[in-house]
Amino acid sequence: MTDSNTSAGAASAAAAAAKLDALRAAMREADGGRGVAAYLVPTEDPHMSEYPPACHKYREYISGFTGTAGTAVVTADAALLWTDGRYFLQAASELPPQWSLMKSGTPGCPDLEDWLAANLPEGARVGIDPWVHTVNSVRTLQRKLQEAGKVLVPLLDDGNLVARVWGSERPPAPPAPLRVHPLAWAGEGVAGKLGKLREQMRSSGASALLACSLDEVAWLTNTRGADVEHNPVALSYMLVVRQAAAGGEQQQEQQGAGECGGSAVLYVDGGKVGQQVAEHLAEAGVQVKPYEAMLSDVAALAAAGGRLWLDPARVSYAVYQAAAKAASGDAAPSETPRKRPRGEQQEGPATAADGDGAAAPPAPAAAPKPFKPVELPSPVTAAKAIKNAAELAGMREAHLRDAVAVCRFMMWLEEQIGQGKTVTEVEVDAAITGFRSQQPGFVETSFGTIAGAGPNGAIIHYRPQPGSCRTVDGCTLLLLDSGGQYDCGTTDITRTVHTGRPSDHQRRCFTRVLQGHIALDSAIWPEGTPGAALDTLARTALWREGLNYRHGTGHGVGAALCVHEGPQSISSRYHVTTPLAPGMVCSNEPGYYEDGAFGVRIENLVVVVERETPFRYAGQQYLGFERLTLVPMQAKLMDPALLSPSEVAWVDGYHREIWNKLAPRLQDQPDLLEWLRRNTRPLEEQLGGEQQ
């Protein structure tokens, strides 16, 4: 290490220590000076986003860890980060020396709640910002702490303690304007979506529903934003009030609507709403109100007896508590304080007394009314996951455009290496993003490009950085995971390529990953089957070698929305029981990673479709996958001796499909057309030519 690197490292460690000192000081002063012994800092923002905007990256700021999953815990003498297997290597390299990495799911690593219960003294107070924890997570944490004699303290009035430490250096809230998502790609108007939602609300007995997830709001309103990098969403909430037909019920719901005005309200910074968006929303009967007005409207509904649909897995504990207090007769807050997300002091709904000497609320004049919200999964999540015909057409078009860009990049990389040049991982990112930007309708990348050369490929969510990235030369195994946001759809693709001659071991590992990919792609299953039931198909070929990978096999993907969405997944998380249904878009991405050596991943996006079968046992429909991704897989990384005839046929069939669908778009690009022809030839022809 050079002297300059040593100095930089020392300065970074000192800055990290100063942040912890400041946070611990805030912890001692929290809750009116009573303090907390521990403070939890999750990844999520007030909308429970996987990818929060810069102003809400509290965990990243305090810990230095930039991954998209993890929770930090700070006590008077410890700082710990829990994260999953996707991020073990990344977290180990990013965490300052004052921090300890807790590898979730590995032997000897306790769950976060169990660690708190075992390591804090009797009666210890654990502080949280209730805006960035869901109702479910608070209930779980509260139960485990109470069992161990500890107390959970939602610090609503204190604001976010990390935001206090961040101070004036904290980025401002994003100002990006909204845009209308065209009906041609949305496939259904806002009024139609709201009508279907109200029918679901009626059947569940809900008089109003609060949508908190940013992609749910974007999907419901057919709008897109740019408040979060890589995700076309805006900081917003939406409150939908059900319209009733019967007079008595109508009157009750009108009373329950409080001051929210219309039957659907979008809460967003008014500066983001231009004339076109305003007219688009007004046409659908959607009223626009300030972002900070949400809490008072929700509280007014609850106070008036409205039955709110609040998904406990998506709604923050702060919102839930405000509604509960209003329903019980406590004074409702006048507004959702705008300064609250900036970490400043606020007036607003107090959370329930923590049983540790907190001042009790004044006794109500009458017995409190029971707060009985509808606590079911948000119906918007399920509706958004099942793409309609227009959304699927947009996704197919986006993948055709994306395939042109990725193939152009692959050809460019071969040319660079063929000319004896080297390319850095950062230049790889810039090049593939540049080729995407040349495609019509390109908006931005759908996530930060993962370009891992050699051992960096083993860091599952690696992000190359200038000055520290590796180079790609004539003998490099490169894992490239990238994607694009287009006006019509969202893409996510991983290809692993070798720029020279791969080793036999690399080919063996790649081929086993390929076999898992093929097995999942070829699967047929009865309707009602969750993704967890298919996960082993992608792992079996690896398991036979004693190999595996520490991430899920597939995630849902939005249509011109977030690259990660639920409720479906394909993984070993058996508690995710959502069945795979026609119209759902998922990834198929098995992998293998050798720490300090290389990584392999093969990823396509697929859509669930109905399949014809000779029989239909018990009258069930059977389902399968249709491929969306159309980029060749590198033949020289395949070991044909390990592939069965049916697997070879799959590769050849996939490459033939790519040629048939992509070649018509390349008639004016003869160089790329020739590259595509060479790389979609039958496997025997490709490998035979290389082996001569």
TrEMBL record:
**Co-factor requirement:** Mn(2+)
Tell me where in this chain the Peptidase M24 C-terminal domain is found: 621-683
Q: Which UniProt keywords apply?
A: Hydrolase, Manganese, Metal-binding
Q: Which InterPro entries does this entry report, sorted A to Z?
A: Creatin/AminoP/Spt16_N, Creatinase/aminopeptidase-like, Creatinase_N, Pept_M24, Pept_M24B, Peptidase_M24_C, X-Pro_aminopeptidase_P
Residue ranges annotated for the Peptidase M24 domain, each copy included: 394-610
In its keyword annotation, does this UniProt entry include Manganese? Answer: yes
Domain Creatinase N-terminal per the UniProt entry, residue ranges: 20-148
Q: Which intervals carry biased composition (Basic and acidic residues)?
A: 336-345
Q: Where is the composition biased (Pro residues)?
A: 361-371
**Listed Low complexity bias regions:** 348-360
The Gene Ontology terms for molecular function here are: metal ion binding; metalloaminopeptidase activity
Instruction: Kindly list the GO CC terms recorded for this protein.
Output: cytoplasm
Q: Which Pfam families does this entry report, sorted A to Z?
A: Creatinase_N, Creatinase_N_2, Peptidase_M24, Peptidase_M24_C
Q: For the region Disordered, what residue ranges are annotated?
A: 328-374
PANTHER family to which the protein is assigned, alphabetical: XAA-PRO AMINOPEPTIDASE 1
Q: Which family does it belong to?
A: Belongs to the peptidase M24B family.
The protein in question is named: Xaa-Pro aminopeptidase P
Look up and give the organism this protein is from.
Astrephomene gubernaculifera
